[in-house]
Specification:
The protein has 239 residues and is α/β, with parallel strands linked by helices. Helices cover 34% and strands 25% of the residues.
């Protein structure tokens, strides 16, 4: 489960990216975060991934209060996450296989385990036959799928995607969203930020609308009841 309790993010320049946001995402749920550019979608995902820290409030991910997480624990926490952006930022001098393998190599996985995991991830995104190619030879859609394979190669429990179809045409966008849906169907918690309302309406999953750093729809997700928030904080395992 992912829980935000009265989370505010204010940057040093005075910009308030999120203001008093509270919401819950159940384990295994697929949820869309929608809103215009600057609504706070990217900031929300970065806070959940602990790429940034909130100015106020509490963030719980998988039962861990990451707002109190010690710095040396952050890399271990991120091993449970897959994070995807609009630009997969692949290394053009490395093959598709090597790009996908990079997180496992850094984490110190065994060579045979790396081979098995990378090929399983590439097969999942339909690119196993292109493992020896380099990114510049691939289409934009294929490069995005390589980025997805890299994000899921370590079998994360949570998958966060920030505008993953922003550079794709409608047909490719739908293809990528269906790929995320397949990960959701095997139990991964999927949270996708997108401004493409037409694309999101093609899927039956919960949609949270952000505007000017606040949840504006559905309104009941704007705050948690105080008693419920207290119960959550009492039961969480602080780290």
């Amino acid at each position: 489960m992912i829980t935000l309790i009265n989370v505010t993010k204010k940057y040093p320049n005075g910009q308030v990216a999120l203001s008093n946001v509270s919401l819950e995402i159940a384990a295994g749920e697929m949820v869309f975060i929608r809103g215009h550019s600057g609504a706070g979608k990217s900031t929300l995902l970065k806070l959940i991934a602990h790429l940034e820290e909130p100015s106020r409030g509490q963030i719980l991910v998988g039962g861990k209060n990451i707002s109190q997480m010690k710095k040396f624990r952050i890399p271990y926490f991120r091993r449970h996450l897959g994070y995807i952006t609009q630009n997969p930022k692949l290394l053009n001098n490395y093959t598709v296989f090597e790009n996908v393998a990079m997180p496992l190599v850094i984490a110190g996985y065994d060579r045979l385990d790396i081979i098995r995991r990378v090929r399983a991830a590439l097969e999942r995104v339909g690119l196993l036959d292109k493992e020896h190619l380099k990114p510049p030879t691939l289409s934009v859609g294929e490069q995005q799928r390589v980025g997805i394979a890299r994000a899921v190669v370590h079998k994360p429990r949570f998958l966060l995607a920030d505008e993953p179809t922003g550079n794709l045409d409608p047909d490719l966008s739908l293809e990528i969203m269906k790929l995320f849906e397949r990960f959701h169907q095997v139990g991964v918690t999927v949270l996708i930020a997108s401004h493409d309302s037409h694309l999101l309406e093609q899927f039956p999953y919960r949609k949270i609308h952000l505007g000017q750093g606040k949840i504006i729809a559905p309104p009941q997700l704007g705050t948690l009841e105080n008693s419920k928030a207290e119960q959550i904080m009492e039961s969480v395992e602080n780290v």
